[in-house]
Every structure is written in C-alpha cells, then in structure tokens.
Amino acid sequence: MRLLVVLLSVLLVVSGRPDPRPNLHGAQVLRVVPDASWQLHYLMALQMQGHYDFWTEPRAVGKPVDIMGTAFQLPALHAALTQLDLTPTVLISNVADLLAKSTPRNTEANRQMNWDDYQEYDVIQEWLESLASEYPSVCRVEDIGTSYEGRTLKLLTIGTGAEDNPGIFIDGGIHAREWISPATVTYMINQLVTNSEMYSELLSTINFYIMPSINPDGYAYTWSDDRLWRKTRSETDSSLGCKGADPNRNWGFHWNEVGASSNPCSDIYAGPSPFSEVEMQLVRDEISKRASTLKAYLTFHSYSQLWMYPWGWTSDLPDDWKDLDDLAQTAVDALTAVHGTQYEIGSSTNTIYAAAGGSDDWAKGVAGVKYSYTIELRDTGLFGFLLPPSLIIPTGEETFEGVKEVGYFIARTYGK
Ligand SMILES: [Zn+2]
User: How many angstroms is it from 65 CA to the middle of ligand 1?
Assistant: First the structure.
C-alpha cells in the first residue's frame, strides 16, 4: 500500500493536462494485464489523472488494459508500468501510421451513405431524413433538439404497429472516437428499413427507437481535429482550458460516485453535475418519454467485444441478472455464428472495477428498462479505435444478428 501511495504521488507530480491535439508521431499503444488488485487500482488511479490516453478501461484482474503514450510520454509510461511489475507489450507500434491508413476517402461518392467507409455526421443525418421520406410506412424521423455546438439530433422510429408496442431503444456514438458504433447502428437501421418485408412480423410487434450518433460535437471533432477525441465539446471549466465531459459518466444515477473523475482534463470527467451535457439530457428525455413501453436499451461502444449488463456503479448484480445474462447469451451466440467473432458476456460478477454515470445503469435503475446492455464492438485491440473500414460490414452483419435475437425475444415475451 505504501508503495502505491509513493508511486501515485510521483505520478501526480508529473501529470499535466492532455494536449487537445496530441502529436501522434511515434505514439504507441501498450497493453498490460494486471494480475493483482493493487496493480488494477494503480491503473485506475493513473487513468483518473488524465495524463495518458486509456484506450480500454481497467476492468478486472486478468483483463488487458490498453494505454496510448505519445513519443514524449513513452519512456515515463514504460518506467511506471515496469515499476509496478507490469510487463507492457506493444499493441500498436505506430499509431500515426495506422491512423493515416484508416482515414476515410474524401470523395464526392463517399458523401453518399455507404458502409464501405465511415461517414460524417451530416451525411448520417441527411440519410436518416431520406429513409423516412422513402419508407414512410416503416419509419419516421424527428428532430429532438440541438447539441452544445448547435447540431441537430434526430431520432428514427422503426415500426409498423401500435405506438404503445413494446420498444427497444438503441444509441451509438456516445464516445466520439468509437467510429464503428455509428457505422454499425446505421448498418442495422438500413437492414431493418430497406428489408422491412423480411421483418414484417417483428416490426408490427415492436418499435425500434434509434439514435446512431448521440455525441455529434465530439464526433465532428474527431473528423476535423483529433481522431482520438472521446468526450463532448462543452466548455466545462475554461480556467483549465480542457473541454468536454465523458458523456458515459454523466448520467444521473449514482453519478460520480466511483470510476469517474472530477478533473475536467480527464477523459473520464463526469461533468460539473449529472446531465450537465445537453446531448445526454436529450437522449434521457426520449427514453423517459417511452419508459413504460421500453423493454430493452442497447448502447454501442468499441472496442473489446463485450456484451455487458448492469450494474456499472457497484459490483452487486441486479435481482434479475439471470434474465439479462440468458438473453445476452442468446444474442452473442447468434452474433458469433456469423463470422466466428468471440464475445465475452460481462457483468459485475467477475469485475471489481466500477464506473458510475453510465447510460445503461440509468436506463435500468431510473427508467426501469429491464434488458439494458452496453455492447463493446470489434476488435480486441489489433486496430482498436482505428478499425479499418473494410470491417464495417462484417461487424454490422454479426451485430445485427445479435440485435435481432433481442428483438425477437422482446416480441415473443411482451408482444400483444
Ligand atoms: Zn465507449
């Protein structure tokens, strides 16, 4: 313990605020696997400071943690990890190189919605409008408000039956740099809407409410300035010059109790207050409005290939965890059957790391949506956030099979 205190104080001295546009030449992503809980706690404290960019979160003993260091930071990062008996392996040896390779083609053709490449926010929004006008009997779109920087957030409802049919709420892109999330969510929207005759029974029994990109300012910033930006873009504390809060630490349920930071420069900054971020207020209100009919909530992140359920704020399990675990298993089986992609079904069961303020906890704990899941999409670290666009369609295909299983289950169990 004393060692830990000493190390932490050393680290606090060297900590600084992250450069909003880090120089990625020479940056690497290192992986360590803590095998003792004190190492895990140390890594959590290191993440909390906001000095290094954690690509994955310290979850549990035996689970890998991926940390990016810039060329400038790498010697200190190596030294700190080695001192803790952690042996880092180089997961991504040249972040700048990988980033250059995964940059979308800026062509006119690519400004039409497609899944051969990632898409900008306005392309996705215009596409939602065009779907609603082309398929008015299957889906409708509504503007639900504007982001901090003034971008419109849209919600697409897919369903051919009654308005009070059981519902599934799906969102993507809460963390800006997790590009595979909006890409996968839009892929699934496209399947449901353009092949609606294949899903006519499903769509007449349940309603899907979908928002593919709920952190639009952050997402736009990953296109314009910093591909690895995670948070929102609000002005939270101008004196420090650091912008944005972690929108998945900002939800008002056990807010900022654990696994979140009060440092505005941290990537896991909970924000100045619960629901300080206007985008999260808007999503919250859409869920609240439909709380009596919503049976499932799915929020898509990357990466790690995990299908997780609450609670995040405590290592206790919800009373009905077995129901959630069973449905997760069904969904993951269907997902894996497509391309063999392995997923881990996660809960707090074997996890000692908690993080409060997540949307899945709020959906279950406050809105009362029984089947609430956080899904971490591909991959397991080979490309991390810089997943090549050629993997969008395979990821979409397999994820859609899992989501359909959730849909069929909700239709069978709650359909009228
Ligand atoms: Zn995420």
Answer: 14
CA 246–ligand 1 middle distance (angstroms):
9
Residue 358 belongs to some domain of the structure: yes
| Cα 233 to averaged position of ligand 1 atoms, centre (Å) | 16
Q: Domain count of the chain?
A: 2
Catalytic residue list contains 178:
no
Question: How much distance in Å is there from the Cα of 200 to the middle of ligand 1?
Answer: 32
Q: Is residue 364 part of a domain?
A: yes
For the domain that residue 47 is a member of, what is the CATH number?
A: 3.30.70.340
User: Residues 28-80: pLDDT tens digits?
Assistant: 999 999 999 999 999 999 998 888 999 998 988 999 999 999 999 999 999 99
Looking at per-residue pLDDT, the higher value among 332 and 353 belongs to: 332
259 and 329 housed in the same domain: yes
Question: Which domain does 49 fall in, by range?
Answer: 2-9+22-101
Residues 153 and 183 in one domain: yes
- Decide if 123 is inside a domain: yes
Taking the C-alpha atoms of residue 301 and residue 386, their distance in angstroms, rounded to an integer, is 13
- Considering the domain architecture, whether residues 126 and 40 belong to the same structural domain is answered as no
Ligand 1 centre to CA of 175 (Å) is 5
CB 210 within 8 A of CB 185: yes
Gap between the Cα atoms of 134 and 201, Å rounded: 20
pLDDT in tens, 164-173: 999 999 999 9
Same domain, 68 and 143: no
Task: Please tell me the predicted confidence (pLDDT) of residue 109.
Answer: 67
277, 279, 286, 376: the catalytic one is 376
- CATH number for the domain harbouring residue 195: 3.40.630.10
CA of residue 166 to ligand 1 center, whole Å? 27
Contact 131, 189 (CB under 8 A): yes
Same domain, 125 and 96: no
pLDDT surpasses 70 at 106 = no
Between these two residues, 112 and 74, which has the higher pLDDT value? 74
Q: Is the pLDDT of residue 352 over 70?
A: no
The residues, ordered by sequence, that sit 6+ positions from 275 with a Cβ below 8 Å of its Cβ are: 250, 251, 252, 281, 284
Which of 84, 101, 77 lies closest to 27, judged by CA?
77
DSSP characters over 366-394:
TS--SEEEEEEES-SSSSGGG--GGGHHH
